[in-house]
Amino acid sequence: MTTPKIPNSVPTSFGNSAASRPGSLGPARLAGVAAFLALVFVAVPLGIAASGRWDFYYTLTSVALLSIASAGVWLTFYIGRINIGQGAYALAGGYVSAVLITQVGMSFWLTLPLAGLACAGLAVLIGLPILRLRGVYFAMVTLVLTEVARLSALALPVTNGAKGITSIPLPGELSVLGLTIIPDFATLEDPKLAFYLVAVALMCLSYLALWRIVNSRLGHLCRSLQQNEELAASIGVNTAHLRVLAYAISSFFGGVAGAMFVSISQSIYPSSFQVADSVNFMLNCFLGGLGYVFGPMLGTLLLYFGWDLLFTTGQYQMLIYSSAMIVLMLVLPNGLLSLFDRKGGGK
Amino acid sequence: MEQILANGLYLGAQYALIALGLTLIFSLMNVLNFAHGQMYVMGGFVTYTVVAQFGLPFIVGLLASAVVLAVIGAVCERFLFRTVIKRSKREESTMLLAAGIAFFLDAVILLVFGEKQRGVPKIVDGVFNWDMRLIMPYDRILIGALAIAMVVGFILFMQYSRTGRAMRALAQDRMAAQLMGVDVDRYSMIGFALGAMLAGIVGGLLVTITGINLGMGGPTSVKAFLMIMIGGAGVISGAIAGGFILGMMESIGLTLLAAYGDVTYLAIFATLLVFLAIRPQGLMGKPWG
Amino acid sequence: MQRRTFIATAGLSLAFSLTASVAAWAENATLKIGFVGVTSGPAAAWGISNQRSMETRAAWLNELGGVQIGDTTYNIEIVAFDDQKDPKRAIAGMEKMAQDGIHYVVGPNVDDGAAAVRPVAEQNGIMYFPYAFPKELYTAPASNAILGMVANYQSGPAIYKHLMETKGVKKVAFVAANESDPLSQRDSGVEAAKALGLEVVSDSVTYQVDTTDFTPVLLPVIQSAPDLLVLSGVSPANAPQLIRSARELGYTGLISTETAQDAQVLQEGAGELANGFISVGGASTPELASDAMKEFVERYTAMFGEYNDESNTKVYALEYIIETLKANPAAIDNVEEFKKTMDTFEAANPFMVGDAKLTYVGTSSFGQKRQVSVPLVVNEFQNGAFQTLFVAKVD
């Protein structure tokens, strides 16, 4: 007695925003992007300076970094896989960066892409066997991956095991041909703003990349995969190759986010990214809306900020937070951005 | 050796019972119930409250757990999952709902039952000792036997009762079942209630041995996922097999690999990955459940 | 414990403390003390016992009319942040504290959180009192963390030595959960045991924290026939199950741990099998508790319905903060002043009978005074209550 239903559902209703529109940059879209950039790079710092809420910098930095990892998860959703294992790659990325900085003496800025690449490589190795799985099987295997990553971090000698890696120096200067692009963080009076700007810049780059992928040939192929793998394969799409590629890109995002977090906390432990993080990355995508490239960003903002804002409610924090989540799900089961979904509406 | 097998059997019996509820809900509604572990914890606390605080017999506590959890399960299905499934475009959206319910139950458990580890006194004293070759406390034997009895009872129920047949039909083909006159909504609700009840009963049973605390929910869900992956999602026999296999693997692994530190679970997980790469649908599942 | 009364009391006391702190003593200035720790999820017990002991003490002091520091009388307000045992959240919590103008924070409860908040604390001038043992947190160049309890590498040797001398222990075995804190504690425990000349017969067995049956875990450990079984960094949830499994497997030797435990939890989970279990506690055993400690336990119980013995070790951090501020009022918003005062600070320990003192120690472990001096009280569990086995001092 098993279920005949295939989890992936109605193809026509899969979002109408970036997914189904051509990838051209119309004037309206350009204006939207410009407004968004102005908001995160100018309005937010000004707003924080005016209100004096300096603690929001870290909150927003976290949101930016977590939404990068969530963007990766979203991409695996895009090929029809539920990924609850992004925490594993965030942890791996963090360790790659931490080890390279502390043991090789590499500059943080160099370790950042390397952490992403290492995770992408790892994802190819792990993805080749497990991407054959679908539906809940894939979801559950990836859930186990996070635990595997934690146990590996405890057991491997290079990670310093249970004691973690601490006292990692702040990111140093980044200069090209003698021209300082990013100053040494240790010389800054308060690196909060600097971390915020770097994180937000990374987030913008990630989402730009994601958007490009979705609107490229690769994105079309991914959609064909999401809707019917057998059909896609039968018309000559190399599904195995495509799946691994998408999964590797997804993990690249996870690795970069993890590495960046390590530079903020200046330490990493096997428990720095846990199963709960992996689940949250997935929830961010659901909450924002699976049909929208910017869904995971909005979802992360809401879930993370929501918890933060409820901090004054003390022991009832969790109760209110979870109730709000359930209610949101009842009202908008297709994610927040489905509010703008004019064509689709309720099924 | 006898000891390892006995430990594995005992673990397997309790695991199988946990996995049964999860797989039942999954087979009926395609919902991966993230809150399953929290329901198990809830069941443990209900039994604890009835037995340790009201001073009533253990069996009353167990019944209370079953009833309370069945009601919770029914309410979740009727008012939450049914609505979301009807309205959402992708079935996976229920995962967010299930996770929300898991957080909610966690919060309720913390507020109502507190943060401490709880346990009820042993229901039977004494330890069975066969020549130091096999040591098993009597209460464990009793709970293990009860768990196995419940598994058997559940199979019989699914096999021979009218409700069981209806649910099997539903799991096999929802549309066809509906066309044949099965009240789909009613049996979905009963199925969900039954699944939650099983989780509650395991919680109640184990509170006498391992006790219960707030934190056991999440990890229990993950373990239950492992079991149904091994056996095959949505298949009753698969859940039972998965439970016993995981129990045995833990028991054997912990004994053989003890000298190497933390590698037992790594080894279990690695084996699982290899196994699933070869057989993606688990032991008994149909492909792409 | 009657749960219904507990809920009612908790609800009432919350409502009461909220209104009370706003209305009744409005004439006093407010001194905010932070708490960043885990009060939800699996490890909630650690943070909650911590937060509640702070709230109990704060409410008590406020009821007495507040605390006089310099020329100003303050009411104490506890600002608590739940980090969900996530180091990333812990940083956010520390940022919140900085935002609130708080300079003294108790927590976090675990190694990774304590390490992660260090940059924020140092950038914002916050002294924090983690319940985490890694030495890097307290040794220079780190300077803002103060260990809020006795570290296991300090209590472990004392316990092993005592048991060698009084019980003739020769062989010792270690079991730990496969998580950072317990594993680190196991490693330093093994080191200490070897240094004392004990034979370590098993130190590689670990378990998942969510284990429901410890028999297979403990089987190889018991077969190595130790005289003393050390449960390194064991959480109160796992302790009774481990004890029970070990005893049921026929183990007759000693069992000990270096973390604080709760008598009620042990009694419920292991009953008389837990008799003789050795753990580290605060000064609340009848022989040691002062009247203040007894009153603290009463007030805690009245406020939250049920006492948690883990709080015995967690009552001190807040006391140290307040007493040090009294000794040097300039430190109220300047942690550099606080650090200066720490070197010479001394006050009476209100929670223990006799003339015990509150001082800062840690020079031998960290090279600087970055630890509160709390009495190392080693307890033995007997029939539902703790009895003092011996008391030692740490430096």
From TrEMBL, chain A:
It is a multi-pass membrane protein. Keywords: Cell membrane, Membrane, Transmembrane, Transmembrane helix. It is found in: Cell membrane. Pfam families: BPD_transp_2. InterPro entries: ABC_transp_permease, LivM-like. The chain crosses the membrane at residues 30-50, 56-80, 87-106, 112-131, 193-214, 244-269, 281-307, 319-340. This is Branched-chain amino acid ABC transporter permease. It comes from Paragemmobacter amnigenus.
TrEMBL record, chain B:
InterPro entries: ABC_transp_permease, BCAA_transport_permease. It is found in: Cell membrane. Its main location: membrane. Keywords: Amino-acid transport, Cell membrane, Membrane, Transmembrane, Transmembrane helix, Transport. The chain crosses the membrane at residues 12-32, 93-113, 141-158, 189-212, 224-247, 254-278. PANTHER family: ABC TRANSPORTER PERMEASE PROTEIN, BRANCHED-CHAIN AMINO ACID TRANSPORT SYSTEM PERMEASE PROTEIN LIVH. Belongs to the binding-protein-dependent transport system permease family. LivHM subfamily. This is Branched-chain amino acid ABC transporter permease.
Automatic annotation (TrEMBL), chain C:
Residues 1-26 form the signal peptide. InterPro entries: BCAA_transport, Leu-bd, Leu_Ile_Val-bd, Peripla_BP_I. Keywords: Amino-acid transport, Signal, Transport. Residues 30-351 form the Leucine-binding protein domain. The keyword Disulfide bond does not apply. Transmembrane segments: none annotated. It holds the Pfam family Peripla_BP_6. The keyword Plastid does not apply. Gene3D superfamilies: 3.40.50.2300. PANTHER family: LEUCINE-SPECIFIC-BINDING PROTEIN, PERIPLASMIC BINDING PROTEIN OF ABC TRANSPORTER FOR NATURAL AMINO ACIDS. Belongs to the leucine-binding protein family. This is ABC transporter substrate-binding protein. The lineage of its organism: Bacteria, Pseudomonadati, Pseudomonadota, Alphaproteobacteria, Rhodobacterales.
